[in-house]
User: Fold this.
Amino acid sequence: EAIEWYKEKHRFLLTMGVDSFKTDFGEAVPEDAIFYNGKSGKEMHNTYALLYNKTVWEVIKEANGKGIIWHRSAFTGSQQYPVCWSGDPSSKWADMAATVRGGLSLSLSGFAFWSHDIGGYHGTPTQELFIRWAQYGLLSSCARIHGYTPRDPWLFGDEAEKIFRDFAELRYSLIPYLWLYANESVTTGLPIMRPLVLEYQDDYASRWIDTQYLLGENIMVAPVLEEDGFQEIYLPPGDWYDFWTKRRVHGGVIFSQETPLVIVPVYMRAGSILPFAKPTQSVEDMWEYDVVRCFAPTSEHDQFSSFELDGVSFSQQFEQGGKLTVKADGCSCFPTWEIWGVPEPISVETTDAKLQRVNNCLLAQGWSWDAREKVLRIKAMHHVFRVIF
Assistant:
């Protein structure tokens, strides 16, 4: 009866158009309270956090057909009622680092979705701290800016606003990728943001890395957690591509790096394939694939890889004799293909003709090769291409 009474308090707001609730503070219960089952508040301390958030999540789903809340407390089973956020960190560098560690610990506890207050909650972040936190936050499973003082990006200057916009657009171009792993989490329980040790359990060094994470399987993010921009980065075994420079890096190493304020270290796993969508103004907008990036393998492993979502399948397959086939089965649009880490092609063919080599395939149909970046770009009204090296 109490649960139904509490749900009814929310139904009134839901009928007015409210989508969700932030269940903040409501999980507390006096230790000397006596529950219906006869247990004390002290005995029910952990369980109550689960039951409280479950109740609010259920009434939202009953009203809207899908449930999502924003809660800070949890217990065994609370992963069923996302999203959990970190609570109220201070606007300090050490607190940002703590949210990374805490969130990755939560991931290993079975929580597929988690978030944090971009910029911290208590106090006012410096411009640099706000930018660094935003870069990390916008490359999290869920993202929001929030604090005791205003967190509007433009309040931290033109540079902060531009960098925030750039990373917001990067996030929205990755929505298909995030959506894929969000769906996967439902069936496997694997989190979207993953400690390195979860994917590289046989790699001893990965056990000690607590300030980097994998976004899905193929993107590694190393948030900048020091004011001077210097940091040590560890890349797990295998080859990786620096997302910003397109440089291929051999894994299994630790190296120091100074990172300009406009970027955060992001590395793509060799052998993976990743379509990027055109950024939209809302996740409810239908996405259109803009660029498909294929990160070439460097050994006999990962010679075939694919990305499949909502009836669309992108794939790359390397064959003996220096041949590569890329496909976009079921795709209604015609994205630009980028194949990183390959030599200069001899020719690029469709199913019925050879494509012309052009200076810039973004301006004309055909293919182009950047010798400095070692990137092949293909643009044409086809969904199957065969590259001869």
Summary: The mean pLDDT is 94. The chain has seven helices and 22 strands.
